[in-house]
Specification:
about 350 residues; alpha/beta; Rossmann fold; six-stranded mixed β-sheet; four-stranded parallel β-sheet; 10 strands
């Protein structure tokens, strides 16, 4: 074995130890029971992924992607790590890059929230901006090539970097935390799709362990994921998502439609409304992608109630609302983008007053 290879192997082993040590220092995220309309037999739970060190669900993904890159020999001591990201994945990857002492560059659109850009820079990362969301892939590949670095490519590797059988993944955590609840095996798990990695992990885990739980994926307007699931034999094309972190203009390689039982297309204004509603009923301040999740949760829960079914539904709180104070939290910003959450907020208020999903 030459000295260069030996040195690389030694560094990678220490890097893996540091990432594993970081995980060992971290407690699991909370699973909160959320208030429901009076008299409901359905229980709703929200797993708060915002409590990770980097503040989002993507902390799990970033850890898995770095470990995947290390064991494959793609990330070495002098490797510049490059990622195409709408924000939260880049924040988390910047954190792990700083932990290992390697450079990190995030490729993103100029519309990414200022709060997320500041967090990437806080963890020592650099930002490279493009105008069109469809440009992020090629720009990231070019940067990795020109720096001699590694393009992490979350959109391809998210579904394979996480062990779907268990090994402390998010699915195993959900079922463990529900074990003492009235309905320990949920009727539904509801998640959004950014890469498709989380839905792939959950769907595979449910099937591997032979649970009767069904997986529902919620998707913003214009995203390509919903039509890709609805008509899998027809090439799907979408547009830029207005809900940061989820929805894509193309079906990503990590999106596995066959493990998804149901999809719900959610109006963008409804995503904002549901996030606001969560704060008013539960005191949890979440970002808009959590609102997308909840809009789907409330529809499915109301349907279960109407059918007289008891059970539980679980979803995710993806990241905190304070990351979007200057965007989704600002009424003028919303108005400038044609987003009016008031009608959807009225729907949720009626749901909680009557216990029934309002007729269209």
């Amino acid at each position: 074995m030459n000295s260069h290879t030996s040195r690389d192997r030694s560094w990678a082993e220490d890097a893996i130890r540091r990432i594993e040590a970081e995980a060992a220092r971290s407690a699991d995220t909370h699973l909160f029971q959320i208030p429901v309309p009076t008299g409901w037999a359905v229980k709703v739970y929200l797993k708060d992924e915002s409590t990770h060190r980097t503040g989002s669900l993507k902390h799990r993904l970033a850890r898995s992607l770095f470990l995947f890159g290390l064991v494959n020999g793609w990330i070495r001591e002098d490797t510049t790590v490059v990622e195409a990201s709408s924000g939260s994945t880049a924040v988390s990857e910047a954190y792990f890059a700083q932990l290992l002492g390697v450079p990190f560059i995030a490729v993103m659109t100029r519309t990414t929230s200022a709060e997320k850009i500041a967090l990437i820079q806080q963890y020592g990362g650099s930002c490279h901006f493009v105008d069109d969301p469809s440009e992020v892939y090629a720009a990231a590949e070019d940067l990795a090539r020109s720096t001699g670095g590694h393009y992490m490519d979350q959109f391809t590797y998210a579904e394979r970097a996480t062990d779907w059988r268990g090994n402390n993944n998010i699915a195993e955590s959900i079922f463990s935390q529900l074990s003492l609840e009235e309905h320990p095996v949920p009727e539904w798990i509801v998640v959004g799709a950014g890469t498709g990695g989380t839905s792939a992990t959950l769907g595979r885990y449910i099937r591997y362990h032979r649970y009767p739980t069904r997986l529902a994926v919620v998707d913003p307007e214009r995203s390509a994921f919903f039509p890709a699931w609805q008509t899998p034999d027809v090439p799907a094309v979408g547009g830029p998502s207005r809900i940061e972190g989820i929805g894509r203009p193309r079906p990503e390689p990590s999106f596995i439609p066959a493990v998804i039982d149901h999809m719900i297309q959610v109006p963008d204004a409804a995503s904002v409304a549901a996030a606001r509603h969560l704060r008013s009923v539960a005191g949890l301040h979440a970002g808009p992608s959590t609102g997308t999740n909840l809009w789907g949760v409330w529809q499915l829960a109301a349907e279960m109630e109407a059918q007289g079914k008891a059970g539980s539904i679980v979803s995710l709180m993806c990241d905190p609302g304070d990351r979007y104070a200057a965007s989704y939290g600002d009424d003028d910003w919303l108005a400038s983008r044609g987003l009016d959450p008031a009608p959807a907020e009225a729907v949720l208020q009626e749901l909680f007053a009557t216990g029934k999903w309002p007729a269209p």
